[in-house]
Write a structure and sequence with these properties.
about 230 residues, alpha/beta, three-stranded parallel β-sheet
Length: about 230
């Protein structure tokens, strides 16, 4: 059994004794008290959904642009040709190309956080599925990363667009900011994420959709938030 550090014990002592869920504002303020590291911790949200992950029509996935970003500039790669290459570059893409980039990726190069492709480049991108898929980097129409609107999509991801998909346990995870963010900004980001996930409720779900919500920082215990 792993030993619990004094720092973690001190943080856990601040949690509600009965581990009940807190209103979002109180949960965020409590999380801010855990900002005791020398680096700016990432804040994440976990939403346990009443979905059956084995059912294709109950997969919850999407992407959302948070009002205050996530405190990190993502490295964006774009597969495009012709004028779309110029659009991507002008919009701030870090890497733009075609077959040349595909060959680099086949060779093991994965120096990017987001991969976007125009529909006419999927013939080049498709064979990269085994490499990009397990890393969550494969362009997808559902995620909005297969698109002709390259400039808009690049700008959204550079501003901190967040992608998510429920895991095998039916839980959706997402980054919602940094612990250094003002409490109001963190709260607004979290509310935006939750509200968007709520709009994605599959029609086939019976019963409770959002079962529980938890927020945490990189090196903090989780805090239950009222649904």
């Amino acid at each position: 059994m792993a030993k619990v550090s004094k720092r973690m014990k001190a943080m856990e002592a601040k949690l509600p004794k009965t581990k009940e869920a807190l209103p979002l504002e109180k949960a965020v303020n409590l999380l801010k008290e855990f900002n005791t590291t020398r680096f700016d911790q990432t804040v994440e949200i976990s939403m346990r959904l009443g979905v059956d992950p084995k059912q294709a029509d109950q997969i919850v996935r999407g992407s959302v642009v948070l009002p205050h970003g996530i405190g990190k500039s993502l490295r964006v790669l774009v597969f495009a040709k012709g004028d779309k290459m110029s659009e991507a570059t002008e919009a701030g893409a870090d890497h733009v190309g075609g077959a040349d980039l595909a060959e680099k990726i086949k060779g093991g190069w994965i120096d990017f956080d987001v991969c976007i492709a125009t529909p006419d480049m999927m013939g080049v991108v498709g064979p990269l599925g085994r490499t990009l898929g397990p890393r969550g980097l494969m362009p997808s129409p559902k995620a909005g990363t297969v698109t002709m609107d390259v400039a808009k999509t690049v700008k959204e991801y550079k501003a901190g667009k967040v992608e998510f998909r429920n895991d095998k346990g039916g839980i959706v995870h997402g980054v919602v900011g940094k612990l250094s963010f003002d409490a109001d900004k963190l709260t607004e980001n979290i509310m935006s994420f939750v509200q968007y996930v709520n709009t994605l409720k599959p029609a086939t779900i019976k019963g409770v959709y959002v079962k529980s919500i938890c927020i945490s920082a990189t090196m903090s215990p989780g805090i239950q938030v009222m649904v």
